[in-house]
């Protein structure tokens, strides 16, 4: 009889010790989503929080902060371009696409955070 328990290979890889608190990254994702209603003000607060907390946790959690920071800057670009394009009326469509992009990106980040793993494709400009 073997003294070790079988391991589930589908479990996320975690570092030794207690799992870190994920409240702050959750708040940042929610602030990004709320930014659609507040004109980006809460998203600005969220990115400041992400910059402050980046580098204070395990690698997988730091990747969430990096993902959130990139999400802010890319969203700023996408919404800025959409604002300019409203002058030729196509901006309303690109704005809608940017909203969908932001929601999907935040939901993917929250899902990965819930699974205690880094988000996928942190460096992508897409989803």
Chart the SSEs and their pairings.
Blueprint: H1 23-38, H2 41-53, H3 59-85, H4 91-114
How far apart, in Å, are the first and last alpha carbons?
47 Å
Count the strands?
Answer: 0
Derived from helix and strand composition plus strand pairing, the structural class reads mainly alpha
* Tally of helical segments: 4
Shape: elongated
Report the helical percentage: 55-70%
- H and E string: HHHH
Beta-strand percent range: under 5%
Largest sheet entry: none
Mean of residue pLDDT values: 88
Number of domains: 1
* Uncertain residue ranges: 1-11
Gyration radius, rounded? 17 Å
Compact summary:
With 127 residues, the chain is mostly helical.
What does this protein structure show overall?
The chain is mainly alpha-helical. It has one domain (23-114). 63% of the residues lie in helices and 0% in strands. The chain is built from 4 helices and no strands. The chain has helices spanning 23-38, 41-53, 59-85, 91-114. Residues 1-11 have low confidence and may be disordered.
Keywords, please?
mainly alpha, disordered N terminus, Putative membrane protein, 4 helices, 127 residues, MamF_MmsF
